[in-house]
Every structure is written in C-alpha cells, then in structure tokens.
Design goal:
Chain lengths: 258, 323
Amino acid sequence: MLQSRLSHSYLLRFIDFPVIDEEKLYVFYGMLEQAKLEHKRKQDTLLSIMLVQIALDTHDLISLEEIDNEGDRKNRQLTVLAGDYFSSMYYHLLSKWEDNELIRTLSEAIQEINEAKMSFYQTEYSTIEPVFDNLKEIESILVRKVAEHYGLTNWKSFGSHYFYMNRLLTERKQGIIQSGTFMLQKIASTLLSVKGAKLSTNQASKAKIVLDSYIAYAKKEMDQLLQQHSELHQLFQERFEYNWGMKGIQEKKMAEEG
Amino acid sequence: MKLKTIYASLKKDLSFIETELEQTVDAHHPVLRDASNHLLKAGGKRIRPVFVLLSGKFGNYNLPLMKNVAVALELIHMASLVHDDVIDDAEMRRGAKTIKAKWDNRVAMYTGDYIFARAIELVTELNDPTANRILSHAILEMSVGEIEQIRDQFNWDQNVRDYFRRIKRKTALLISTSCELGAVAAGASKQEQLHLKQFGYYVGMSYQITDDILDYTGTVKQLGKPAGGDLLQGNITLPVLYAMNQKNEKKKIMDVFSEELHASQEQVDQVLSIVKLSGGIEHSRQISDRYLQKAFYELEQLPASSARTSLKQIAEYIGKRKH
C-alpha cells in the first residue's frame, strides 16, 4: 500500500524509488497495534506517519554541488518536488479521517526535526558527544511525538533508542560502501578538523572507529531497555539480533577490512 | 489604483498579520529563524492574506481566528517559493538573495519544510475538518502541478488545455483556497463560500496569465530580470502557445530552438519577437480579461459591501498590473 502511494510514474523516471525504512515501519506498526484504532484507520495512520518520514528523508538527499548536466538537474528538481508531494499526501490522508490532532502532532514533529537537523548541519561542535546527541534527537522526535500522542509511554524511550541505533548502523553500512557519508564527515570535521566533502581512507577509518564505539554503547543500552520491557523484548529481541547484532557488525567490519 | 490604496481599509489588520507572520517563524535555531525572516523581510504583495481577510468580512469577522488562516496561507506560499528557488537554481528573489544563494540548498530545504509545517499547525488551531480538507486538497494539487510543470518543460506538443490545468494548480488554487478558507473560518453561508471560491479561482487564473504576459513584455526594471525567463527555462505559456497555433509560426519557433534543450538569450529574443508579431500577447490579454469578467460576475452574486468593492479593485489591479 505504501509502495503504491509512493509511485508517481513521472517522478520515478528520474529519481530512485524512495527508501522505506523497514525498521521504522515495524516499530510504528507495533505502536499502532496498541493504539486501539479501527483497521482501515490504522493502515492510513501508519501510512501517514511513514509518509512524513519519507518526505523528510527525501529532502535530505538534495545535493549542494553545482550541477552542469540536464539529468542531475532534473533529479534535483524532482527530489525537491517528491518530498513536497509525499508531505502533502500525509496531510491529505489524515484530513480525510478528520484527524486534526494527529495532523497537529505530526506538523509539530516536522518543525522540531528541522530545527534539530539545522542544528546538526550548522553547528561546529568542539567535542563529539553533542554530535551524537543531536543525531539521536533527530531520530527520536517523530517516534516520541507519536508515542505521546497515543499515550504509549513504554514506546517513547524504546522507539527513540531503536531509531538511533538504526541510524548509526545505516551510517556505518553506508560508510563501508562509500567513505564519507554526511555523518562520517561530521565526526571527522569535529574530531580531526577536516573540512570538505571527501575524506581520506585514514580519516574515514578514524571516523568509523568512533562510530563503532558509539554503536557498541548504544547496543548495551538497547539490551538494557529490552530487559526492562518484557512485552517489547518479545517483539524485538529476535529482530534486533538478526538485523543489528554485534555479530553482524563484526562481520561487516571483517568484510570491509578485507 | 495602487495596491496600497486598495489595502488602506485593512491597514491595521494587515499590520497585525505582518507581526504575526514574524512571530510565527520565530524558530529556535538562529539560521532557521534568519532564513525564514529573510524571505519575510523581502516583502511581497501579501495577496493571499488580503483575500482571506476580505472574504472573512462576508461572515463573522474575528481577526484572532482569521489570522490563523491568513498567516498560514502566506507561509505556504513562502515555503513553496523557498523550494522553487532550489528547483530553479535562482539567485535572486524580490531584489534580495534567495535562501539557497545566501545559505545553501540544504538550509533552503529545511527552512521550507519548517515553514510549511508551521502553516499546517496554524490551520489545526481552527479545529475544523472542512478547513483541513480544503487546504490539504489544494496543497496536494499544487505539488502535482509543480511536478507537471517540470514534466512539460520544453514539451512543444502540449496544448492550451495542459497550460490552463497547470496554472490552475500552480496559482489559481491557492488564491481560490484563500478566499474559500476566509469565508469558512468566518462562518459565511455555503453559497457565499462557493462564490468566493470561484472568484478566487478566476482571479488566480487571470493573475497567472498576466504574469506570463509580463514575462514577454516587461522591462528589466519591472521584472527584476530580462524578459523571456520562462522560455529560457522551457516553460511554455499562453502567448507562445497561441503563436504556435498560427500558420508557420510553430515551425519558426521550433527552428529557433532546433535540437538544443537550453536556449540562449539571443534565441529567446527571437521567439519573443515572433510571439509579439503573432498577436499572442493581445490574445492572452483577452483571455486574462475574460477570467476577470467571470470573477466580477461571482462578486455580483455577493451582498454589496466595502469588502466586495475592495475585492473588485484588487482583481482589476491584478489584471492591469505591470510587475
């Protein structure tokens, strides 16, 4: 259903199909299962929340560089418009359900997320800790607001942490494929005073070591949270181990090293 | 008559709206705040808030309530401009640097998204499902219209119907929505809501056609850029569509552009001359005027009042404006 909503024939001729973060989908699905909503409404609510996330993620893809060919120009233009299109769809969908309160919650979340993103992007941190705090804030806002909206207090800290972990691992995975993701650049610029978009192999390796130490710490916290919430433990432990277990990280590291 | 003179009856309320606009985009992060204010300070006609307020005069006009709609509509317009400047890679707007030029694309995207979300939040203050339904429909259609505009760039096979559908989504819908939501927020009768909505639609169509004519006839001083900017970007508007329907003119225009996707200023100047000689400008003026007459007809169905007079004056100004 989400895939069909995201399909716009002309857009997809020029931009990649939007990435649907399955971990987020799984968490929001689990939350809404407990929100006592009628089936169709639950489906549309889940769709709306995911559309917000996808719209925000799509706008993160806008490049900063000068463009000198028609294909890249079209791609950038349509990436801007795709984000706007997905964003307008969440509002349209919730308006049909006359869900004024959730529209307000999500619009507040979008504002807070853009505040946090601007902070992450613009602030020149002198230490590394606030970089990760800022990233956690960006990842936490939507799930926290939705949990508060439905009174699902258990999910607030768990969802925030799960999404943070998810983001760290996604950054790590991308960093293996292409050295120099936005996150690695931020770590490098904070720790190593590196300016510019490209990192040397040595700089990227140093940034990854820092990232790995934060992943290890976040994993420990995640385990503690799952121990505290037995109902979530049942739902997520297996998935968590399967997708993101430390074993997985070790394997990725080995594959990277060669 | 100047727009300032027409706005005189709303001076106090508009000044209140201006303050509200500034307070509404008072973000925590300094860059987000500065970027939002940057565009606000560059000015603009504030035509959407004016339409909201004047339409509200046909019901129970309550400024503290109306302001939510008036400010939201201007913010939605602003947010779309911020993103449009990234799409067009534009350096200047309203005589000032664009957000993407002053900061960069990423700052522009975050600012646009922030402003847009702020606008939606304001509308939820009304707690009115009808308001959300009307606005969300307009916004969705607008975004589809923008996608279609990119799709239709340099598409010489499009027809006048494609053009009208595009400008409806691009401009007329938001003006129509401003009028309708103003009437809804003030609790005007269903019939009045409908006439105001239709009035806004016709004025919006006339407004955009006039805008498209000005791109052919305006001076650098009036436009803040050389004429023919739309053609340079491949946006095919009514004057050129009319010219292309004339015998031999299509071939002449196609010859000028030949195989090249991007036209030079010299090529654009050539097409400007062809369009002017074809009568495309005059024809477009007539169509714009026809929409204005339809807008006036809708107004006549509403009770006579100073708000109705002001709406008529604004519509006349829009049809005859030079910039």
